[in-house]
Amino acid sequence: MPRIQWTNLPPPLRDHLLDRLRDRQITVDDLYKLKLWRESEPEAPEGQWVKDFGSFKICGEGKFPKTFLLQGQAAKGQKL
Question: How, if at all, do strands 48-52 and 78-79 pair?
Answer without folding.
Answer: parallel
